[in-house]
Each structure stands twice: as structure tokens, then as C-alpha cells.
Design brief:
single chain; two-stranded antiparallel ribbon
């Protein structure tokens, strides 16, 4: 038989600490720098596109076009594929 009494209670704070350490150890750490990160402001853009600077963000860029979306979308797809981009 075991000499440790059954049902020994461990304070909740130690259980939380153990769970927290386990979660931190099991999670993958995001890379500080990724070779896949690109400068979104350097992407090709259609002629006549105007950048929307109302919400400046280094990781996102929005352009406005004076043409309807039905005509703009195929033109953007063609421009990006001509520059080596492929749809996912």
C-alpha cells in the first residue's frame, strides 16, 4: 500500500500555477521575424488607385478605385498574377 494519504488537497493557486506553466510550455512561440512578411505599401496597385489614409496602419493598406467593383476585381487579380502572386 501507498504511504501517501488519498485525497491530499493542493492549494488552488499551485494548481493554477502548474496549469499556467504547462500551457506556456506547450504553446508554440511566434517567431519575432518572419521571412514571409511583406511591405503592404510596396504591393502593385492599379493605375488611378488612391490610398485611404484615414486609418494609417503599417500592416494594412486600403486603396479606393473610381471604377465599379465588378471591373476592379478582375483587373487586380490580373495585376497580382502578373507579379507572381497566386490565389489561395
Amino acid at each position: 500500500m501507498s504511504m501517501i494519504p488519498r485525497g491530499t488537497q493542493v492549494p488552488a493557486r499551485w494548481q493554477l500555477l502548474a496549469c499556467g506553466l504547462f500551457l506556456m510550455a506547450s504553446c508554440s512561440i511566434a517567431a519575432g521575424a518572419d521571412e514571409g512578411i511583406i511591405d503592404v505599401h510596396a504591393l502593385p496597385q492599379l493605375e488611378g488607385a488612391v490610398e485611404d489614409t484615414s486609418r494609417p496602419d503599417p500592416y494594412r493598406v486600403e486603396y479606393r478605385m473610381p471604377t465599379p467593383q465588378a471591373a476592379t476585381l478582375p483587373a487586380v487579380q490580373k495585376l497580382l498574377s502578373a507579379n507572381g502572386w497566386c490565389p489561395m
